[in-house]
Amino acid sequence: MTKILMTSVRDDEQPAIQEFAKKHNVEIVTSPKLIDDAVDLTADVDGLVIQQRSKVAPNVYAKLKANGIKQIATRTAGFDMVDLQAAKENGLVATNVPAYSPRSVAEHALMQIFRLLRKSYRFDHQVANNDYRWFSDEQALEIHTATIGIIGVGRIGGTLAKLLNALGATVLGFDTNPRDEMKDIVEYTSKEDLLKRADVVSLHVDLNPTSEGLLTAKGFSMMKPTAGLVNASRGPVVNTADLIAALKDGTIAAAALDTVEGEGPVFRTDRSEKGLADEPQIQELHDLDNVILTPHIAFFTNLAVKNMVDFALNDVLLILDGKESPHTVTA
């Protein structure tokens, strides 16, 4: 019987894992540990599925090869945690899950767009301090009167555009490969024009050398002082120091961040006692009353979790059977 190791497994993934194992007559061994700390378990399995934000330790690849592993599947869209060159050198086919549920992230972004337009971050802080007043500068924009800019109109950004269009918003888009089928929904324009016109800018790009540092002080200076930013893509897409400065000095009004630079030591940990003194940038974002932070959970829905498990495991079986996966990623 084929045996597959899955690392960094959460309790909420177990029903989908057990269902897949039963349906496909495979044995699936799970571990809550990162592959870095569970690599010895691969001596007794045929395939491997991981999930983590930190880089896979450099010594892992040779150990996987020595243990006879032929592939490494990440059950995430992002695959920057895998050194693709090291994987190739050790005979490992790398795969990801590029579209586990575009709707999950798009719906999260839409929720955050509404929260920024309705300035709920202001009321959250006021009510937490038992201040129930409201002020003239807290007047909201109705969605059908707003202009929303989407940077990266791919699977997720395109899904968000359709939701916004259905609500009557004006949707601007910037993408290096505009799609003809979206042109009745999205007004494609330059990044600069989008930043100048949008009431909220929502980021939906992959992390790669061209998208890292996509938004810096120069970009924030182009935005309206009343505008908000949503980042539900990857943290390094935004220069955090520049964002903090823009939020503090009123260059932009607010930000809703599901991902930030350097989130690894913080997100999915309990900091209620330790605090954030060792992560000063995240501490600053946490303390600002015009920031909404969520711990990288935009993907976290029933359908997305099942698809992440199913697609990654299907890729393992394809590769072990000598077939090609449509989700193979290369250096």
TrEMBL record:
Coiled-coil stretches: none
Keyword presence, GTP-binding: no
Matches recorded under InterPro entries: D-isomer_2_OHA_DH_cat_dom (IPR006139), D-isomer_DH_CS1 (IPR029752), D-isomer_DH_NAD-bd (IPR006140), D-LDH-like (IPR058205), NAD(P)-bd_dom_sf (IPR036291)
CDD domains: LDH
Protein's UniProt keywords contain Ligase: no
Domain of life per record: Bacteria
All residue ranges annotated as the D-isomer specific 2-hydroxyacid dehydrogenase NAD-binding domain in the record: 110-298
Domain D-isomer specific 2-hydroxyacid dehydrogenase catalytic intervals: 5-329
Entry keyword set: NAD, Oxidoreductase
PANTHER family: 2-HYDROXYACID DEHYDROGENASE HOMOLOG 1-RELATED
Entry's family note: Belongs to the D-isomer specific 2-hydroxyacid dehydrogenase family.
The name this protein goes by in its record: D-2-hydroxyacid dehydrogenase
Organism this protein belongs to: Limosilactobacillus pontis
